[in-house]
Design a protein that fits this description.
Blueprint lengths: L1 E4 L2 E4 L1 E6 L3 H11 L4 E6 L2 H11 L3 E4 L8 H10 L7 E6 L4 H9 L4 E4 L4 H13 L5
Helix pairs in contact: 1-5, 2-3
Amino acid sequence: MTLGTRSGIRQRETVLIADDEPGLRLLVRTAIESPLYQVVEASDGDEAWNLIQSKRPAVVLLDVTMSGRSGLEVLAAIRADSALRGTQVIILSGRIEQRDIDAGLLAGADFYVTKPFSPTDLLARVAEAIEHQVTW
């Protein structure tokens, strides 16, 4: 599906939410899915990594604490893969200590959003990430 924009035609962007809480994934899907964004979901880090490789999402929302690979391990795998360098990563975590935020950003996250969050603010952050997406 393509959509008209001021500058021409653009594709519907894929956003992956990786979190082990089904209710949170539903909240994020409800906040983000639209004619502009298609949302895919992963319930753990291993599923997230598989979907990232197959779907090539523009933005990945990662919880830090998940079974399988942790969010930071998935982030490291994304940053180590040259084909995924343009992927924007938003850490979406209940870890609110400054040291946790710093660790996520130092690991290569583009943004760090703490839980609980405003769905409107999260949507704005996703839009900002899409705007800053780099294609290699």
